[in-house]
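Consortium newsletter contribution from the modelling node. Members have asked for a concrete example of what our holo predictions look like. Here is one, prepared for the magnesium ion complex that several groups have been discussing at recent meetings.
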Amino acid sequence: MNNHTNPTIEEFITSIQIKDRISKLAKCIELDHQSQKLIALIVLKGSICFAADLLREIDLDVQIEFIHLSSYKDDVSTDIEMKSISSENFSGERIIIIEDIVDTGKTVNYISEYLAPLKPKSIQVCCLLNKKSRRQIPVQIDYNGFDIEDLFVVGYGMDFNNRFRNLPFIGVLN
Ligand code: IMP
Ligand code: MG
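And here is the predicted structure:
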C-alpha cells in the first residue's frame, strides 16, 4: 500500500509463512493438552486474525473468551487498565492467553496477575510475535510464532493508530 496519504508498508511476514507457522503452533497446543478443555483468552483487538486462524486449527474443546485492555504508552512508561473481560469463571480451567505481540511484557504480566486470583488450573501464553530485545518484565511464552527485531509492524490484526489491521500479511511501517 503506497500513495500520498498512506505510509509505505513493506511486506515482512507473508500470509503463507503465517499460515505455516500457525499450523505448527496448533499441533504443539494439541499435543500438550490432549483431550483437555481449554479456554483461549483473546487479547483485543490486535489478536483477532491470529486467534481466528489458530483456534480453527486446534482439534480440542476450546472455549473462547475476550479481554480488552487500554494502554497508554509514552517513552518511559506504560499504564494498563482493564476495559472489559467476557468471563471470570476461570476456576480450575486451563487458560491460554492469545496475544499478537509480546513487547515489553507488561500486557501479558498484567493479564497473568489479573487471572491468578481467579484460580485457573494453568495459564499459558501463545503469541504470534516476540520482540525479545524490548523486554522489561520477564514473561514465559509457551507458544511463540516468530522472534522479531525491534521493528514496528502492522497488519494481520495489528495496527498503527487503528489502521492497517485488515492487511492479510505482516508489514513493517516506514
Ligand atoms: P507490551 O505490553 O509492551 O508487551 O505490549 C504489547 C502490546 O503492544 C501488543 O499487544 C500490541 O498491541 C502493542 N504493540 C507492540 N509492538 C507493536 C507493533 O510493532 N505494532 C503494533 N502493535 C504493537
Ligand atoms: Mg495488543
